[in-house]
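User: For my dataset I need records formatted as: sequence, then structure tokens, nothing else. Please produce one.
Assistant:
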Amino acid sequence: MATSYVGAIDQGTTGTRFMVFDHGGQVVANSYERHEQFYPEPGWVEHDPVEIWENTEQVVESALADADLDAEQLAAVGITNQRETTMVWDADSGRPIHNALVWQDRRTTDRVEELQDAGTVEGIREKTGLECDAYFSATKVEWILDNAEPLKLQSGRSRDLRERARDGELLMGTIDSWLVYNLTGNHITDVTNASRTMLYDIHEMEWDDDLLAEFDVPEAMLPEVRPSSDENLYGHTDPDGFLGAEVPVAGALGDQQAALFGQTCFDTGDAKNTYGTGSFYLMNTGEEAVESDHGLLTTVGFQLSGEPVRYALEGSIFITGAAIEWLEDVDLINNAAQTAELASSVDSTDGVYMVPAFTGLGAPHWDGRARGTIVGMTRGTGKEHIVRATLESIAYQTRDIAEAMEADSGIETTSLRVDGGAVKNDFLCQLQADIIQTEIARPVVDETTALGSAYAAGLAVGYWDDIDELRDNWRIDREFVPEMDSEKADAMYGRWDDAVERSLDWAREE
């Protein structure tokens, strides 16, 4: 009998990856493809869902071919995805009616401010655990239904989108739902992705009628909500489809919850931070949905079949890795690897602070009108100072979250598990340990987002017996301990607050 594996589709903000893992959690196949970013207006960000699906087919096929694997060797496939990114498609044709609105998209900021003025945000927070923000799916799907061009029917006439949505002719979902739909034909999401829509009550664990009414989203559009690891399966791939095999699709997690799962943060108090386009710091709070008084989100961490939901506190930082991309875009660096060399060529930033609020600020500030700011420059400021300030901004934003997390949970962070592309940068990891004044643990397998979704799917089909088996797979690559004096770290961090203050409430319409 051929050796079996578990596959993971990792659909992220900038591209799509397919990875195949063995029983020890080691990577045996890997393929990646970028997709285009669309910016129709300032603050607007869109993706083409058809391109995303075509890229998904491509990376699955190429990863299997490169590793000389057959799709029949996949015991299951799991999905992880950029969260909150929202789309609507025609249930009959499967055709999107508009580009997906990406989580970074700020076009519905005015609508959020209407809700704030109406005094409804506290009720939204109580039910969903979320700040009322354009980041989440509710105002995005509302905008699509209000603004997308109606699809013409075969008769040649067009019908109102909301009327079609009420009749179940249009489907709404985050990217996991889109992928599950294309893989299996079923309209399903998992509890973690549902919890990011601002339409789902995370205490009752159901779509909320009042929120659906507020945003005029018909329930007929919504996917069925399932556990993150589902023994009943989301469905199977079509044996006549692109894979040529009937493979169980058995689990899904939003990317940050998938990283929490992949880092084996299964116990209350376990925490991880993922450094991608943005950074996302999550702490497992167990079966208790801890309410935040410090600007954090309360969210669903994961759910295994037949078990209670596990909750998490989350600090969402919108721009970290994307700030490194910006340095490259404006020719301050040639590639991301150069940042460590440039930053370490100077002893400090010489008082320069960079606040990368390109799409507003997330936790704990929640200012959708904040914008990117560089302060403290002199005639002697060089690109190395700006590069170092950009890396420091990632560390400062993470400390913002770490302090809020400790205040809300009462749990002191003694070790933070990190993952994502940026943690390959030793300089950044050491800087992070210094600024937070805590140990940073980097695992051997740093693609923990894909690994987490593979674990969820594998558990569902019995590829792994239980989470203790997964704990045994986790291995540390390197630990970073604070080397900076705590008083110096505090002083550097103290000026960060001043820099943030100058970025706030900038994007005002004339």
